[in-house]
Amino acid sequence: MHRKSLLLIQWLLVGLDVLSLNVVFCSACYHFQQQFVKGLTFYYASFMFYLNIAWLCIALVAGQYKEKSIAFFEIFARRSLRAYLLFVLFGLMYLFFSKQVYISRLFTIVVLLSFALALAFNRFLYIFICNYYKKTGSVLDKIVIVGYNEVSKKLAAYLEKDLLSKCIVGFCDSPENVKELSNYPILGNVDEVVSLCKLYGVAEIYSTIAPRQNPKIYRLIKDADFNCIRFKVVPDLNQFISRLGQIDFLGDLPVISLRHEPLEDTGNRIKKRLFDLVFSSVVTLFLLSWLFPLIAIFIKLSSKGPVFFVQKRAGRNNKVFNVLKFRTLKCQRGVESFKQVSKHDNRVFKFGRFLRRTSMDEMPQFLNVLAGQMSVCGPRPHPFQLNDAYKTVVDKYMVRQFLKPGITGWAQVNGFRGETENKMKMAKRIEADLWYLENWSFWLDVKIIFLTIFNMVKGEENAF
């Protein structure tokens, strides 16, 4: 999108949000005017001024209106929610610390909730505006994609999802490389790229063909520079990674990480650890403190043997630790070979089946979290026998060990829990674990926890 048009949209968003806040505030004042005591106008005006400054500061510091924030609606919506929650917190802090007893609490609630609805309306209006720009295409930067292959098709799909998407004019490749109908026209071959760019007014060229694959790309780069057309190369790294991670430099040498790992960042690890400590402490103090003794009594009454089941498992970076669980299987004499628990397994005693069905047998692992051996959310820790059986047959199986194991995880809330009696089921679980590793965020952990609680209440087919 042209710089002026992008700047216009950014200022339009800022203006709409500020206007919505003031319209909501003034409308609430008009509605509640009969309940106001005379002489309190100054207090409400001060509160209105504070809310305006608070929203602008929070939104700008949080990068609410930056180009990268508004390019994808999912990111924009998430940052909008984060900014709004901080805005509510700052609004309540103002009332608390300034001891504003004159401002109606009902008035405050109406203003804050109405502003949330106004923000949601503004975001949908923003989608409408962006779709209008896309359809007209008059202010979008036009691009040509060199090469017609899996990478170029994926690139086109990503650009289409971008709310501020560039306008794709078409592909350029040799006719023998195109063996299917494409979403965009095949304009010509590599030799004709620059002349086609001049014809269509193209501002950027994206090449999915590396110069070493086709020496003509070297000449194309020079011609693009000479004609003031930006040239970008999109490397094909799908053989090694599913998503481009981070590029660092050692001197002038680029070093590409094989995958994007948000938890390699120290700040993210601290954030996740603090959340684990707070959440586990609350669960331990207010739930497990009285639930543990009750479960222990029922286990003792249902089956002879210890209350807890302790087993060595591999944690982060393959470090061994003792995982804690409530015992759900009958104690049997002699040493038996490892066997996963299956549906209607006669080794599970009656109360143990209830614990497994509700996932309450995993509760003691909050102690593992407090000890720093596990996290609330992460890949489930597998027994060593399961690791040995699958690490050589499932691709990237051991990559999951880069993370702390979790009490629950993305794989579990998506149905990949329970017995993994074949390679396909395990592969699906590993795929989900690796997706979590590459896409971790604080809000993703919150989502997993809510889905876990929902599944516990609803009941799961694979919980046995």
General shape: flat
Question: What's the structural domain tally?
Answer: 3
Kindly state the number of beta strands: 11
Please state the average pLDDT score: 82
Structural class: alpha/beta
Supply Rg: 29 Å
Strands in their spatial order, largest beta sheet: 3-2-1-4-5
**Relative strand content:** 5-15%
Helical amount among residues, as a percent range? 40-55%
Distance separating the two termini: 53 Å
Helix/strand order:
HHHHHEHEEHEHEEEHEEHHEHEHHH
Poorly predicted runs of 5 or more residues: none
Biggest β-sheet, characterized? 5 strands, parallel
The helix count comes to: 15
Task: Explain what the structure shows.
With 464 residues, this protein is of the alpha/beta class. It is built from 15 helices and eleven strands. The chain has helices at 3-31, 41-61, 67-70, 73-97, 105-136, 150-161, 193-200, 216-226, 266-302, 350-357, 365-370, 384-390, 410-413, 423-439, 442-458; strands at residues 142-146, 167-172, 186-188, 204-207, 230-233, 247-250, 253-256, 308-314, 320-326, 375-377, 406-408. The strands form four sheets. A five-stranded parallel beta sheet has the order 3-2-1-4-5, sandwiched between helices. Strands 6-7 form a two-stranded antiparallel sheet. Strand 6 (247-250) and strand 7 form a beta hairpin. Helix 1 runs antiparallel to helix 2, helix 1 packs antiparallel against helix 5 and helix 2 (41-61) runs antiparallel to helix 4. The chain starts with a helix and ends in a 6-residue tail after the last helix.
